[in-house]
Amino acid sequence: MSSLPVHVVGGGLAGSEAAWQLAERGHDVVLHEMRGVRGTPAHKTDKLAELVCSNTFKSTETSNAHGLLKAEMRVLGSVVLMAADEARVPGGSALTVDRDVFSAGVHDRVTSHPRITVVREEVTALPSPGIIATGPLTSDALAEAVRARLGVASLAFYDAIAPIVSRESIDDDVVFRASRYGKETMPGQPDASEVSEGEGAYLNCPFTREGYEAFIDALTAADQHHGHEFDEVPYFEGCMPAEEMAKRGRETLRFGPMKPVGLRDPRTGRDAHAIIQLRQEDRAGRMWNIVGFQTRLRIPEQQKVFRLIPGLENAEFLRYGSIHRNSYVNSPASLSPHLSLRDDRMTLFAGQLTGVEGYTESTATGLLAGINLSRMLGGDEPVVPPTTTMLGALYRYLREADPKHFQPMNANFGLVDDLPGRVKDKRVKREKLAERALADMAEWASTHVILSAAKDR
């Protein structure tokens, strides 16, 4: 093993997981955490892996995307999930934990590891070899160092996310393909991969006057989510919640993201009163973004209101909309496939800073970052699981998403490779996807990952 220590910046979920994975493989690790010297608006303690916004890691069922990702992480030996299992409290099928017991479990494991040294300080430079896992509240000094290295446009400081729906849940008898302002209109539903942005790349949901009025009524009356103070984001015109726009006037949205100009339905020959457009989010065309509808509505309200959109009455939501404080890198524009600097593969990024959403997703990227940095320090190439797995599919999204429209993503079945042949029953399909994913992850891990800990301590 290298005689030089590896530096991990950030003692949250991703950083703690990365440090553990490296140490278990025989590397000396310095884990830098600024809490204890300098606090954040969100954290209350200086414990590693403190949970801030929720005490649940979501579902444990493998027919659920979050449950499948956790099952894959167990194959890879996640220390965060070990601590979560020990701290579990009743929560049905969700992995719900006692926050204090959970944090103490991770903290005690990491701080007592003979190969890990925890240093309380603010880091202001990018380490090599090292992993940056500082999360959504990255300090200004380190954020500036990231911006200087990657370019000003590579780091965002807030999410303005619109919901994403599953393609197979969209009603093709209602929506039609077209682009705005007289660009070519394409009747029918050609393969998504064959359509470019200038050739009717959008799916259009046409409103009647009555439907539009009912939608505006529901949107303005819906209940909003109010997070912590640190999570509040100033509303710029570019990230204005749809419900706030609607409150400015009943016609505001019809002259904004719902503008019907140049979008005549080729099947009827008529112009709609208003239009909501859906933009393809992934290369395979299974995920579609509701354009311009970033929102602070609570999740049940999003389900109720956005299913009033023509063609989305039975929509399956793969990601819900949100607006909150979140520093994150434009990964597809700036990072390598294994989420390192392109000019230094030994400096990796992990956690929410990479553009993933959620506790489990953040932890998973820390786990893989630790594995990959260990491999490279040992002279091997970095690896990413196959895209039939949830973890591999998340990394593909971070690699292949359109940099112009990049937004953070959570685990969902729209990311993974589809099954050969059509499976109509949704639950059966997800069970088959999960069965394939776990088999592929086990095979991949046996080839690329040393599952037994390096014991030369």
Protein architecture, described:
- This protein has 457 residues and is an alpha+beta fold.
- It folds into two domains: 6-161 and 327-448, 3-Layer(bba) Sandwich (FAD/NAD(P)-binding domain); 164-320, Beta Barrel (Elongation Factor Tu (Ef-tu), domain 3).
- 31% of the residues lie in helices and 17% in strands.
- It contains twelve helices and 17 strands.
- It has helices spanning 13-24, 65-75, 79-86, 99-112, 140-150, 209-221, 242-247, 299-306, 331-334, 359-377, 390-400, 426-448; strands spanning 6-9, 29-33, 56-59, 88-89, 94-97, 116-120, 130-132, 155-161, 164-166, 176-178, 202-207, 274-280, 287-290, 317-319, 322-329, 340-341, 344-349.
- The strands form four sheets. It has a six-stranded mixed β-sheet with strand order 6-2-1-7-17-16, covered by helices on one side. The protein has a six-stranded antiparallel β-sheet with strand order 10-11-12-13-9-14.
- Strand 4 (88-89) and strand 5 form a beta hairpin.
- Helix 1 (13-24) packs parallel to helix 10 (359-377) and helix 3 (79-86) packs across helix 4.
- The longest helix is centred in the last third of the chain and has 23 residues, at 426-448.
- It is globular, with a radius of gyration of 23 Å.
- 48% of the residues are buried.
- Mean pLDDT is 87; it is low at 181-198 and 451-457.
